[in-house]
Write a structure and sequence with these properties.
With about 500 residues, this protein is an alpha/beta fold. It has two domains: about 100 residues, Urease, subunit C, domain 1 (Roll), CATH 2.30.40; about 325 residues, Metal-dependent hydrolases (TIM Barrel), CATH 3.20.20.140. The protein has 15 helices and 16 strands. Strands 5, 6, 7, 8 and 9 form a five-stranded parallel beta sheet that branches. Its EC number is 3.5.3.13.
Length: about 500
């Protein structure tokens, strides 16, 4: 008999109810921008037009305003967040006390597993809704949710296997955030098909279960401009070669699966590399390359510790490298060779991962500062053709994040989603800056307040003058959730 946990658990809305949120229907829209960041750079007097589906049909510089509404400040693309574990938002600040002189990712992971045991479906939904509103207010307009909490306590199934996935989808839809949901396949506790740990029981499944889950999600909430479904083999230590092949091959045979994104944690810690070498004589990225033909549908999350050959092969494959500088710093993972990554022309993007911070500007800044500290030089990630560090990083993070999401969110251009951010022209860090100085000020000048004023997702204004319509209720529900989870 399938079970539920939590006597006060609220039932998720049925799929037909999920179609209706607080967002009004629109028949398309327009916005006139005195200054907007297009793929070719900053342009003046840009007219944006989008259709009822939320797709841009025009982004034309040098236009007359006519009767189009005027953007209240400079307009930049929304940033895709390519890696998130929503439930970990509620853990922020709870693992910062030394438990051992050798504290590392692995000791943090044990604490994370214990925390995950307490979560009920209503907790996950409240945490995710609050988090996704935070993302929007920070300028993220979409997220790739690496979702591996599937079952009830002890691994018992829910009546609806998609219970927790639908909770996450409901939260994103309520917030108005674009979503790529990546249900995670977790089979084993370590390399060589090691038995799972007791605390991993809520994650464990099979390739067939994962593929059936994706079919259930497609039936409940079909893919559209706001949502996409991929898969995520958790890591090579948690999925064996046969399981990986079954998942990838099965995905490709499903409707919409041929070009669906595949994300995987890889080479995050030196111990992972050492364990992989000891088990099979290959490094993690090297092993993955021997098992699968990588392309732009793949996102290698972290990939912090690669050899020269691995850097070269990943760049040539077109796969996206998912960088999460704040979380990688928090966990003591190490520093990727970002100059090498960029010089090789690899695709990459940024993610908030453990969600201890929701600040895309900080992610880009820390990516650069880590290199400055390591190499003792400035402007490490600039180039001769792109001398402004922030401009180069922002453009590449948008492009790589769009690839990783499998959605049309690659910037302000016809055919892309109408996902963009209006900056506060009067913000102390941005006022009086020329357009070519704005991103540098945005990324490297962190003082008072949030410079994000308005946020549009699929043509709908979901943040207005720095506020989201649901933020007060979402914050109250989040606080109540955390209070309940922290009770002894």
């Amino acid at each position: 008999m399938a079970t539920h946990t939590g006597q006060d658990r609220q039932e998720p809305q049925h799929s037909q109810d999920l179609q209706h949120t607080h967002h009004p229907d629109i028949a398309g829209g327009r916005l006139f921008c005195r200054s907007a960041l297009l793929p070719e750079g900053w342009r003046s007097d840009v007219l944006l037009r989008w259709n009822a589906d939320g797709d841009l049909i025009e982004a034309t510089p040098g236009s007359a305003r006519g009767d189009a509404p005027l953007a209240a400040g400079p307009v930049i693309p929304g940033m895709p967040n390519l890696h998130s574990h929503a439930f970990q938002r509620a853990m922020a600040g709870l693992t910062e006390t030394m438990g051992s002189p050798t504290d590392s990712f692995w000791s943090w992971r044990t604490l994370m597993y214990r925390f995950a045991q307490r979560l009920q479906p209503q907790h996950l939904e409240a945490i995710a809704r609050h988090l996704y509103i935070e993302m929007l207010k920070a300028g993220y307009t979409s997220v790739c949710e690496f979702h591996y909490l599937h079952h009830a306590l002890g691994g018992a199934g829910y009546d609806d296997p998609a219970e927790l996935s639908l909770r996450v989808m409901q939260a994103a839809q309520d917030a108005g955030l674009g979503m790529t949901l990546l249900p995670v396949l977790y089979q084993y506790g370590g390399f060589g098909a090691a038995a799972p740990l007791e605390h991993q029981a809520r994650f464990i499944s099979s390739p067939q279960w994962m593929l059936a889950l994706r079919e259930r999600l497609q039936k409940a909430l079909p893919e559209n401009g706001m949502r996409r479904y991929g898969v995520a083999p958790h890591s090579l230590r948690a999925v064996d070669a046969a399981g990986l092949a079954a998942l990838v091959d099965g995905l490709r045979s499903q409707p919409g699966g041929a070009d669906a994104p595949i994300h995987i944690h890889i080479a995050e810690q030196t111990r992972e590399v050492d364990d992989c070498l000891a088990w099979c004589g290959k490094r993690p990225v090297q092993l993955l390359l021997s098992q699968q033909e990588l392309d732009a549908r793949w996102c290698l999350v972290h990939a912090t510790h690669m050899s020269d050959d691995e850097y070269r092969a990943v760049a040539q494959s077109g796969a996206v490298v998912g960088l999460c500088p704040t979380t990688e710093a928090n966990l003591g993972d190490g520093i990727i060779d970002a100059p090498r990554l960029l010089d090789d022309g690899a695709n990459w993007g940024i993610g908030s991962d453990s969600n201890i911070a929701i600040n895309l500007r900080s992610e880009l800044r820390l990516l650069e500062y880590g290199q400055r500290l390591h190499h003792r030089r400035r402007n490490m990630l600039a180039s001769q053709t792109q001398p402004a560090v922030a401009d180069r990083l922002f453009a590449q993070a948008v492009s790589g994040g769009a690839l990783a999401s499998g959605r049309r969110v690659a910037g302000i251009a016809a055919g892309q989603r109408a996902d963009f951010v209006v900056l506060d022209a009067q913000h102390i860090n941005l006022a009086d800056r020329a357009p070519e100085q704005l991103l540098s000020a945005l990324v490297f000048c962190e003082h008072e307040g949030n410079p994000v004023r308005d946020v549009y997702v699929g043509g709908r204004k979901v943040v207005s003058e720095g506020r989201h319509a649901l933020e007060e209720g979402a914050r109250a529900a989040y606080r109540a959730t955390v209070s309940e989870l922290l009770k002894d």
